[in-house]
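User: Predict the complex with beta-D-fucopyranose.
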Amino acid sequence: MNKYQLPTNSKMLSKEFVYGVATASFQIEGASQQRLPCIWDTFCATEGKIADNSNGDIACDHFNRWQDDIELIDSLGVDAYRLSISWPRVMHQDGSANQDGLNFYVNILDGLKAKGIKAYVTLYHWDLPQHLEDNGGWLNRETAYKFRDYVDLVTKAFGDRVHSYATLNEPFCSAFLGYEVGVHAPGKVGKEYGRKAAHHLLLAHGLGMQVLQTNSPNTLNGIVLNFTPCYPRSEKLEDTKAADYADQYINQWYIKPLFHGTYPEILQELPLAHQPDIHEGDFDIIAQPLDFLGINFYTRLTYSAPTQAGEFYFEHEHMTPKTDIGWEIYPAALTGLLTSLNERYELPPIYITENGAAMADEIEAGEVHDLDRLNYYQLHLNAVNKAIEQGVDIHGYFAWSLMDNFEWAEGYLKRFGIVYVDYKTQQRTIKRSGLAYKALINERNTQPQQ
Ligand code: FCB
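Assistant: Here is the predicted structure with beta-D-fucopyranose placed in the model:
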């Protein structure tokens, strides 16, 4: 197969459907000396946190190669590029603008505009300035207001160069992985931290949306959430109940406040010390109208009844088949997720802002035959198409990722790119999965529109 196949009448073959590729600042930029330190620099410098003891100092050297990378993006034929802004690159510690940092992004945005590629900008993809973490980070309510100031500065500097702004990427990961289980920066561990951090992140989102509505009313403004659908391991009532608890804790916790202005019921069952500090009026700030909702999907998980007192569920290891990062390949969960969210909430237009797979790629004679990743994409594009057929209003799809990059706690060991990166030479090579993406978009462009 040389290109992804979709039914000829698929809405995903209409020119309105947006195809893009995604990256994030810390994962690709490098040039860590030209910005303030962030929590991921500190985390990487901590013994035992990153699988290959690596860091983001150089990464894909995108800071120096951005022009070539725009050519690369353009060569794929995509409509859009989702990138994130490094807060510690654009703001000094006193809150004033770092003009060099802003210029770096302004140049990228101008470069994209010149090629007719729409910029989908994520304002926060996990690289919190370290000085804010030293003040409590996302456990400190003040950080939400610092985020508001940062959004104000960035949106004023970027003017009309941006097509879409997302406030946050995956607050679940920032809060749960970063402050509850500690496998991501800043590496805090404690059930009493996760919900508090999550609440301040959601507050930051709401405050950021208010700024966007004022400073940038013509962009598509929203948020990117990740979802890992929770399945019961058996039909037993206690397993179904466990899976529902997990879903509330992992998934619904982040979406329900946006649309219903409240947390899921599990909140009432948490010990007081684990509950967030909710101030009067917080939900009014959080539940701002959204122009779009970004959904990131990779896998699902299965659950049974808890084995320990005080727990709500037992989470099983991933089932097979798995990608190289150990996540189950289960595309039906993507269709199920989209249709179930559509039933539960009054959703704005949806974008799949991330989807993709880590595979153990090998480069031979300048080619990467990643048929496993190609197959993953084919299955998931079909899953998106099925959700559209069932009435979900999906406007676009972004492959994660444009290129192999720093995969957080896994360092450079896991490759998610549709473009291969040789970290010694920084050479980029489009993989078979990337060529198939290009061919699909090309077919869409040449097909008579309905
Ligand atoms: C998501 C992150 C993204 C990338 C993928 C594999 O959770 O948003 O940066 O690491 O996972």
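The pocket of beta-D-fucopyranose is lined by residues 24, 27, 169-170, 173, 226, 296, 354, 400, 407-408, 416 (CB under 6 Å).
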